[in-house]
Amino acid sequence: MTFSRRNFVKTSVLGAVAAGVGTRAQGEDPRQNDAAPSGPHKRPIIVCANNGYAYLENAFAFLKGGGDTLDAAIKVVKGPEDDPNDDSVGLGGIPSEEGVVELDACCMHGPTRRAGSVGGVRNIKNVALVSKAVMEHTGHVMLVGEGAERFAVAVGFPRENLLTEHSRKIWLLWKEFHSTDDWWGPGLADPHWQAPAFGPAGKDKPQSELWQDRIQNLQARAGDLGIEPELQLAAVRKVLFPPTGTIHCSALNDKGEISGVTTTSGLAFKLPGRCGDSPIIGAGCYTDQDVGSAGATGSGEENIKVAGAHTIVENMRHGMSPQEAGMDALKRIVRNYNGDMNRIHFLDMTYYILRKDGAYSGVSLWEGYSKGHPHKIAIHDGALRAEATVSLLKGYSQEFPPFPDIPEDLKKGSEYLK
Ligand code: ASP
Question: How many domains does the chain have?
């Protein structure tokens, strides 16, 4: 029997449902240390989304040398903010539907139990630092839009154009392709939502061939727009499946002080003014000096509805391990869709979780975006490494080419919803 991708996904979902919450093969090593509840965990430690990996070494040295936990975490996330090639954060972020980059960020400083946040900020690259400035220099917690930008300039941040040529071209490709199909209209949570119609109903051609045509056309248009050949397919994928990215980082020092920060350019091609979870204290990031810290990347709207980071920290306060706490938040997202896999396939969520004793976990809704590209958490506790997250569901979000039909009997009522 040949084992197609379609079969693989069906089998995976079946397996997931049959196995209930765990969804992973028994005995499989989740490679994460909260499986071992006893014994001291390592401190200091920094955990972050994998796009912070390259910046962990410096930040860890700073933390170990007595640097503040929030400053250490911001050292990590500033890396991708400054990097024009990371198109999910800061400079070079994929813009809104109007072609304007709008950034969100928030932070929490455990030792002083303070927080700061900014949403929908244009023209300022280092919004994590701006959120810290809100925390330090105002009596507010959150500033948005033009007011946040003016505040940033007032406290010394330079204005600059955040739209790189590459992100502009991806946006143009999206504009051309989605002239009638965008973020306006019913969202995923709307009762009348329908899966996007991928191409004209395949009269003569099977869907797979229609997809090939469609991808080839888009690739040709990407070439016309001047996108380099080796980047064209990635650009097409971003147009067809607007990506999420973001970076969260939590840092814990040897004294047990803990802080967290999250920064993002948000969902690609969003409506101007849309704020996701990243600037929402309790959703994109939450830190409680008594318990630990958590942060998120992924489908922001879903995370806001379950107050993900706060839910996780509260779960740990009540005794759950970091992994259990994160899985519970993921199950709440699945519950919000009554287990309807046709919708859940369009979502993804990754949580980065750090308990005050140094235990950590990275958990995600799906294994990754495609086979061979698992979601990862990056860690530095003296040893720098990246580990695959533990996923609630087997398989991948946003199947590409289009996800297969989910059998009727699997759409609702999975065991983990009980
Ligand atoms: N969570 C972010 C948002 O919804 C996106 C992401 O993680 O990339 O804005």
Answer: 1
